[in-house]
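Example 9 (inverse folding). The structure is encoded as follows.
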């Protein structure tokens, strides 16, 4: 099964005061046994993709990092 997870739904599972916390935990538990997470080299970390999206929205074209996979995402690296 492949599931795209919206960041707000994902984060709700970690914040106990979030109005959707209980529902998020229940949902995550219901599919956690059937979902396989891959660590293949072509997979880019969730937060790295989030950073690139935020950069593009804000017109930022360079990132200070040592993580080479940002090149695969078309981002100029400084570092």
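The amino acid assigned to each position is listed next.
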């Amino acid at each position: 099964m492949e599931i795209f997870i919206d960041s707000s739904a994902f984060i709700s599972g970690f914040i106990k005061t979030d109005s959707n916390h209980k529902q998020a935990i229940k949902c995550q538990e219901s599919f956690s046994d059937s979902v396989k997470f891959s660590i293949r080299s072509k997979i880019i970390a969730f937060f790295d993709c989030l950073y690139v999206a935020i950069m593009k929205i804000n017109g930022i074209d360079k990132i200070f990092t040592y993580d080479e996979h940002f090149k695969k995402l078309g981002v100029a690296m400084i570092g």
